[in-house]
Amino acid sequence: MSQVQTVKSTEAAAAPRASDAFAMKLTSSELATTMSHFHRAEIGRMAGWRDRLDRTSNWAITVVAAMLSVSLSTPSAHHGVLLFAMLLITLLLWIEARRYRFFDVYRARVRQFERYYFAQIFSPQPDYASNWLAIVGEGLRSPRFLISQRAALVRRLRRNYIFMYTILMLAWVLKITTPSLQREGSPIGFGASFLDAMRVASLGPVSGIVVACIVGFCYAALVAAAFLVSSEEGELSHGTVHV
Q1: Which of 16, 29, 46, 234 could make a disulfide contact with 106, Cβ separation 3.0–4.6 Å?
Q2: Average pLDDT over residues 96-107
Q3: Angle, nearest 10°, between helix axes 132-141 and 80-113?
Q4: Whole-model pTM?
């Protein structure tokens, strides 16, 4: 009986678990060292995701260039090659938007350090967002995306991919309306008529008018997403330097 009581008293006297808070505050030199190392680490993460973004854009540019070369180099090439290129860069746009959401998390942390820490050292302002470090800590404890997939899609489309879509659209229109770029049996002349262009634009059992309507609807949606969505504000607005 006494042995059981001894065990219970020993368990009750065990030291409490450490809390999430620091046992003691860091000195100014320790805090500066921690801040500089953490800032350097976030710069590295941001640069890594930035490189992945650029790599996806380079893939998309390579796809566009290759498909243009294949489609416009010979009359025997089918115009569907350009439609396939549109699908490929749509897939790459989706992948890049997902990567951009990760990049945006680390970009925001880097900007917090630059805005609230380093800028305060170089040009102090009284009580300027004094709780920013706690916000960074909560972001580390519970990481969350700062923008939605839709917002990331619109942002990457507006900055890069709308130009690639435009080039492919112009090449597709050129392909179906220029006799010298079409297969044998196409009408000969300076330019094909509307009906001839719709005949050339057919895709298997799908008529050319249906194909043209689908392409036109998709491009109208792209233009609306790129230019009719509310403009970005703050650091990401046009003309403002941002990382």
Answers
A1: 46
A2: 94
A3: 130
A4: 0.79
